[in-house]
């Protein structure tokens, strides 16, 4: 027996984008009126289901939720940005832009409207304007790691890897314990051909999250690249023995993980082991 | 995912019993004190049976709460972080854009009943 309200709450906390789950659980709650029993959480559920309904294309449900929120909080900028999102979803980008501009004129520091404006510019196909808007926002709110992540994403779409790497460094300053951010940074560095630093970052990923397969692959690829390159006399560079040791460690762990009982059929395990050893 | 644990009926029963004992001992104390006042007797401390009833209710409460409470979360940050998937990178709820094919894909789909 699944408690719909609890699942919706967990999804709000983990910030995962699962609109099908949210709509499937939230629609009966809202249509039966049971959502009002949740007191303060009811409005959060309305907002959550409205956004999920926009993602899925269920415009009637979205309209219903936004209407309920409008009745409860008339004129609130948070509700107005939802209305802006609704217009964005159906493709009326210009009108959505007007709403966000109006909110920002009333209150320059409104974070939600500023962020929506960035995404609106991106949806309109103006990536450089979106980037400048987001940079302006981050000049003021430099502790918003979500914003830095989004900026990194925008730069990556434009293939501007150096700037994306800088954004990821800002994210890492704010959230140093999250191995996923280190992983993204490591992969950007690898793409930039900065293998030395990429190797260090991949090691950090595996340090923060034991047996992270993607991190182990990263270590293998970096180590084998560096071993093939000419050995350098530079003392700051990782030595050959260390590289070989890391390569061996990554290989062993990968084979152990892929060979774990119940992981796959025997033939697949054999094939995976052979392939890992040749990398 | 996040399924609520089956309510522990025994634990709830124990908590209920403990609550009644607690309430009963409180009421008995009140009655005892009014009785003493009625016979103008001096206060000689609580009778032994009320004390035992009170302490029993506390012990039962302890047991009941432990049975009813949810499972603990891990204390090591590592185990919580390991559950983070790579999709959490793309989550960014304030930065959702809606020009994706979800609207077309889900248009005529009846969502399945499992989670």
TrEMBL record, chain A:
Keywords on record: Endoplasmic reticulum, Membrane, Repeat, TPR repeat
A Pfam family reported for this protein in Swiss-Prot or TrEMBL: TPR_EMC2
Cited InterPro entries: EMC2-like, TPR-like_helical_dom_sf, TPR_EMC2
Localization annotation: Endoplasmic reticulum membrane
GO cellular-component term (any): EMC complex
EMC2 TPR-like domain boundaries: 80-188
Topological category with respect to the lipid bilayer: Peripheral membrane protein
Residues of the signal peptide: none
Biological role stated in the UniProt entry: Part of the endoplasmic reticulum membrane protein complex (EMC) that enables the energy-independent insertion into endoplasmic reticulum membranes of newly synthesized membrane proteins.
Family of this protein: Belongs to the EMC2 family.
Binding partners and assembly: Component of the ER membrane protein complex (EMC).
Protein name per the record: ER membrane protein complex subunit 2
Naturally occurring in which organism (per UniProt): Linnemannia schmuckeri
Automatic annotation (TrEMBL), chain B:
Family per similarity comment: Belongs to the membrane magnesium transporter (TC 1.A.67) family.
Cellular compartments annotated: Endoplasmic reticulum membrane
GO CC annotation, single: early endosome
Entry's Gene Ontology molecular function annotations: inorganic cation transmembrane transporter activity
Keywords: Endoplasmic reticulum, Membrane, Transmembrane, Transmembrane helix
Keyword Transmembrane: yes
InterPro entries cross-referenced by the UniProt entry: MMgT
Segments passing through the bilayer: 12-30, 50-69
Annotated protein name in UniProt: Membrane magnesium transporter 1
Domain of life of the native organism: Eukaryota
Coarse class of the protein's main subcellular location: endoplasmic reticulum
Gene from which this protein is expressed: MMGT1
Record's keyword annotation contains Membrane: yes
Subunit structure: Component of the ER membrane protein complex (EMC).
Organism lineage: Eukaryota, Fungi, Fungi incertae sedis, Mucoromycota, Mortierellomycotina
Membrane topology of this protein: Multi-pass membrane protein
């Amino acid at each position: 027996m699944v408690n719909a309200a609890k699942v919706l709450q967990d999804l709000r906390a983990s910030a995962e984008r699962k609109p099908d789950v949210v709509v499937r659980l939230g629609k009966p709650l809202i249509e039966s009126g049971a959502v009002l029993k949740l007191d303060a959480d009811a409005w959060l559920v309305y907002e959550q289901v409205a956004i999920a309904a926009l993602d899925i294309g269920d415009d009637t449900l979205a309209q219903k939720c936004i209407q309920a929120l409008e009745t409860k909080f008339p004129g609130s900028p948070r509700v107005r940005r939802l209305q802006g999102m609704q217009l964005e979803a159906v493709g009326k980008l210009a009108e959505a832009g007007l709403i966000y501009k109006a909110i920002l004129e009333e209150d320059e520091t409104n974070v939600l409207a500023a962020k929506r404006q960035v995404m609106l510019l991106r949806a309109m196909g103006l990536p450089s304007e979106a980037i400048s808007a987001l940079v302006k926002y981050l000049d003021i709110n430099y502790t918003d790691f979500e914003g830095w992540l989004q900026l990194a994403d925008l730069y990556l779409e434009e293939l501007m890897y150096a700037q994306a790497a800088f954004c990821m460094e800002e994210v890492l300053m704010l959230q140093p314990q999250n191995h996923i951010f280190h992983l993204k940074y490591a992969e950007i560095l690898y793409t930039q051909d900065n293998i030395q630093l990429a190797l260090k970052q991949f090691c950090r990923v595996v340090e923060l999250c034991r047996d992270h397969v993607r991190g182990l692959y990263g270590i293998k690829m970096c180590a084998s690249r560096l071993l093939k390159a000419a050995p350098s006399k530079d003392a700051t560079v990782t030595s050959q023995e260390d590289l070989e040791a890391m390569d061996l460690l990554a290989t062993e762990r990968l084979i152990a993980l892929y060979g774990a009982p119940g992981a796959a059929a025997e033939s697949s395990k054999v094939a995976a082991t052979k392939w890992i050893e040749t990398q | 995912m996040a399924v609520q644990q089956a309510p522990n009926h025994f634990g709830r029963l124990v908590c209920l019993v403990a609550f009644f004992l607690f309430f009963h001992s409180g009421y008995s104390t009140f009655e005892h004190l009014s009785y003493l006042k009625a016979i103008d007797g001096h206060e000689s401390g609580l009778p032994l049976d009320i004390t035992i009833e009170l302490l029993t209710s506390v012990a039962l409460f302890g047991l009941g709460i432990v049975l009813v409470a949810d499972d603990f979360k891990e204390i090591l940050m590592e185990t919580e972080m390991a559950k983070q998937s790579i999709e959490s990178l793309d989550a960014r709820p304030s930065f959702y854009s809606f020009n994706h094919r979800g609207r077309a894909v889900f248009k005529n789909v009846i969502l399945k009943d499992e989670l």
